[in-house]
Write a structure and sequence with these properties.
Length: 811
């Protein structure tokens, strides 16, 4: 059991360690199985120079692959039989450990042989049954044809050449004896069949056909198709041979028929009896097959998981190196430090359960290799962590942006999607997925549905935030409500004729929460909301960028990187806040004082003419001097970011190189005979320090930050733009569709208007606008926020875990 965890463990990845296992061969399989149940060790491949066929357990993996093939064979037949796959129960999981793998292999082989034999027998019986059904159809139809045999003979004689006709009539030995071939042929081939017969026999045959009313099950393919019964009358053996060959080439099923009426009656009785017997036999065979598949299905999930586990265990064992002298296996891997006691307990348990005389050895290795990144997430935080990981996996113990993304991502989305009516719609959708998550998690969903289900808690936070910002904007499908008291404004006259052209008069205290409902529809609505949302976007953007830079300080402090603190964090804070932090203060001061100062003018002339008087744009005393000081700070911070760091890095490298040379000389002086140097020793520290490369990298970083400070701040204006677009679209759909249709006082037009409004709201505002706001919020986090502190060049911790097998495929 994992010990107590700090509530803020997600802020940095778990502390990891490189561990080594020395495992006796007799307990290796059980040890790896127990570690797979734990799921907290990521093994390293110590046999990377060998291909898969050269490894120790290649044959066992082939056996597992063959068993997996048999299980897939069973699964396909169960799907065809309409048998739903069983769910792995807790009882079957308990009995799974007692199932012997060799015994399971024998069981699967026996069941496969049984199923193949049953399928072959059923197929043979079904074919015979279908052949007899066709035979019965042919007997019935051909019997009708043969009643007119004399007419058919006369018709055929009339087709014989006139030179031979008289001779055939006068000479009894040359009288025509008609034979016939009967059977069934697919309906779509009848025209070509008749034409081929006529040409092959040169017209010396007579073909009669009749369509079968119902579809006929073909004995060969088993498909139900439309067929025709045919009778081809001929004269002579050569014509018979030709007709038979043509029937075979067209896939026609031929059946014999007796001329004698009594014999025909006996055949009908015999065929009817066989059909009844075959029907009973086929039903018994199908029932036996269904019982066999149900028996397989009862244990299928358990067997399938066991085969997957065995295959994964042998894959891991193939990563171990074999120590010939000690007759043991050596393994290496990464694991969290908190799991050390659990791993040691598992090793002891595996030794006892396998009756091994020698215990496994667990030891920690010291390495300079960067460990994998492991964040302990749950079903709520997982989706937010995936959003961050899609940009890049955090470097080992780097600050995790997902902790802040849980709050900032839904909120920035809601700033662009602020409508509490639309927010309620999103909330209802995500509540459906949350309430039914246990059932839906075990089902196979479509790509889009699975994506929505995976991000259900992200959508939940987005919906709640949208309801909050919608209450601030006072928009419910663009309609304002007096939810928090009465409006502070009233009409200037009793008629209110000019209320939305000449403005309103404030008659009471300011509306307690959010935008006053009376602003909506007034002549000052758009300028007011534009100014409000634009300035709010700048404040949010500067706040989030400052948060990113502050987090870079904590990263530098954690990794003991004073250079990044003094020559990256400090000048970046100075530069950003000297310009845009100052702009944010001006916005707040203007809101508090009600000043009419032009902030565009203030910021532009702060650069162009910093010594000019501000005049009516002055917001407080000493503003001019403060602007000059902030401008000087901003200018000084640029070379501060650019020059000191490369030179200090070069000096650190030279000092480290001198200390190493001095240490080596000391070692030679102490004992030149006993010290043997490894030429590859500390190869990482021998790398040449490329000053030009470091300087260019720092130059690019400085230019990127300076230009990015401007472009990133401007990028946050997308919050204003999308919020305004969402509000205006919602207003257009409400005013120009719903209200306009309602004004016609016609039921049909009203219904059409409601339908159009619903489709526009769902399709445009709840689907397209949601996706658009999501992507823009994603960009603001990835580019504007995370690039201030997040490197994202790590690799994810991928432990060997049986828990992941149920989520994967058959491999």
């Amino acid at each position: 059991m994992i010990g107590a965890r700090h509530p803020m463990d997600m802020i940095r990845s778990e502390a990891m360690q490189l561990v080594q296992f020395i495992i006796p061969i007799e307990s290796s399989h059980l040890t790896v199985s127990y570690l797979g149940e734990l799921g907290l060790v990521q093994f390293r491949d110590l046999n990377a120079n060998k291909n898969l066929f050269q490894r120790t357990h290649a044959n066992q993996i082939k056996r597992c692959g063959e068993m997996g093939r048999k299980l897939r064979f069973f699964k396909d037949h169960m799907a065809k039989a309409g048998i739903l796959p069983s769910v792995l129960s807790e009882m079957s999981q308990m009995t799974q450990a007692h199932t012997d793998f060799d015994e399971l292999e024998a069981i699967l082989s026996e069941l496969e042989d049984d199923l193949i034999r049953v399928n072959a027998n059923n197929l043979k019986l079904l074919r015979t049954y279908n052949e007899h059904l066709e035979y019965m159809l042919v007997i019935q139809k051909v019997g009708e044809f043969l009643y007119a045999k004399q007419n058919l003979t006369a018709a055929l004689r009339s087709q014989i050449h006139d030179t031979d006709r008289s001779e055939m009539i006068t000479d009894p030995s040359k009288q025509i004896k008609l034979g016939f071939v009967s059977g069934l042929i697919p309906k779509e081939k009848t025209m070509a069949f008749e034409r081929t017969l006529f040409r092959a026999t040169r017209g010396n045959m007579f073909l009669k056909q009749a369509a079968v009313e119902n579809l006929v099950t073909d004995p060969v393919s088993g498909d139900k198709i439309a067929k025709n019964v045919f009778v081809a009358f001929y004269s002579g053996e050569r014509a018979k041979e030709k007709i038979i060959k043509i029937c075979d080439s067209f896939g026609a099923n031929r059946y014999p028929h007796a001329d004698d009426l009594e014999r025909r009656r006996e055949i009908i009785e015999e065929v009817s009896r066989k059909i009844s017997e075959l029907k009973v036999t086929v039903d018994v065979g199908l029932q036996h097959r269904e019982n066999l598949l149900k028996h397989i299905n009862d244990q299928f999930a358990q067997w399938n998981l066991l085969v997957k586990k065995e295959k994964s265990v042998y894959h891991i064992l193939n990563m171990f190196s074999f120590d010939v002298t000690k007759k043991c296996l050596v393994a290496e891997g990464w694991s969290p430090i908190f799991a050390s006691n659990q791993i040691q307990s598992i090793l002891q348990k595996a030794t006892i359960d396998s009756n091994s005389q020698i215990g496994s050895i667990f030891q920690v290795l010291h390495t300079k290799e960067s460990p994998p990144t492991y964040f302990h997430t749950n079903k709520f935080t997982m989706a937010f962590q995936e959003i961050v990981d899609a940009y890049g996996v955090a470097k080992y113990q780097e600050i995790n942006p997902a902790v802040y993304t849980i709050i900032t991502f839904p909120f920035l989305f809601a700033v662009m999607f602020g409508d509490w009516g639309h927010g309620i719609c999103l909330l209802l959708i995500t509540l459906y997925f949350i309430v039914r998550e246990k059932k839906l998690s075990s089902q196979k969903l479509g790509d889009i549905t699975e994506m929505i289900f995976g991000g259900r808690y992200v959508i939940l936070m987005m919906a709640l935030s949208s309801i909050y910002t919608g209450l601030i904007y006072n928009e419910f499908f663009s309609v304002p409500f007096d939810l928090f008291g009465k409006t502070a404004y009233a009409c200037s006259d009793t008629s209110c004729i000019n209320a939305y052209t000449q403005g309103l008069t404030k008659v009471r205290q300011t509306y307690s929460f959010g935008v006053d409902p009376q602003w909506h529809g007034s002549r000052t609505e758009l300028p007011f909301l534009n100014s409000l949302k634009m300035k709010m976007s700048i404040l949010l953007g500067v706040t989030q960028m400052n948060l990113g830079i502050i987090l870079s300080y904590f990263n530098g402090n954690f990794f003991k990187n004073n250079l990044n603190i003094w020559h990256q964090f400090v000048p970046q804070m100075i530069f950003l806040n000297s310009l845009f932090g100052y702009l944010s203060i001006l916005i707040i001061v203007k809101w508090c004082t009600g000043s009419k100062a032009d902030l565009y003018h203030v910021m532009i002339y702060m650069f162009l003419n910093p010594t000019d008087e501000l005049g009516e744009n002055q917001l407080f005393i000493g503003q001019k001097i403060l602007q000059v000081i902030l401008l000087l700070f901003a200018v000084v911070s640029v070379p501060w970011m650019l020059f000191p760091k490369p030179f200090l890095l070069k000096r650190q490298h030279q000092a480290r190189h001198q200390r190493r040379d001095f240490a080596m000389e000391t070692l030679f002086t102490v004992d030149n005979d006993t010290i043997e140097l490894n030429p590859d020793h500390d190869s990482n520290s021998d790398k040449e320090f490329e000053f030009s490369e470091v300087f260019v990298h720092q130059l690019i970083h400085t230019i990127e930050f300076v230009l990015g400070a401007v472009s990133n701040t401007a990028s946050y204006l997308r919050l204003w733009a999308l919020s305004l677009a969402h509000s205006e679209l919602s207003s257009v759909f409400y005013d120009k569709v719903l209200i306009l249709a309602w004004g016609y006082k016609n039921v049909f037009i009203i219904i059409i208007g409601i339908i159009i409004f619903l489709f526009a709201t769902i399709g445009v505002l709840l689907v397209m606008e949601t996706l658009s706001a999501f992507l823009h919020a994603l960009r603001l986090h990835w580019v504007e926020f995370q690039n201030k502190f997040y490197e994202g060049d790590g690799y994810k911790f991928a432990p060997f875990s049986f828990a992941l097998l149920s989520e994967g495929g058959d491999d």
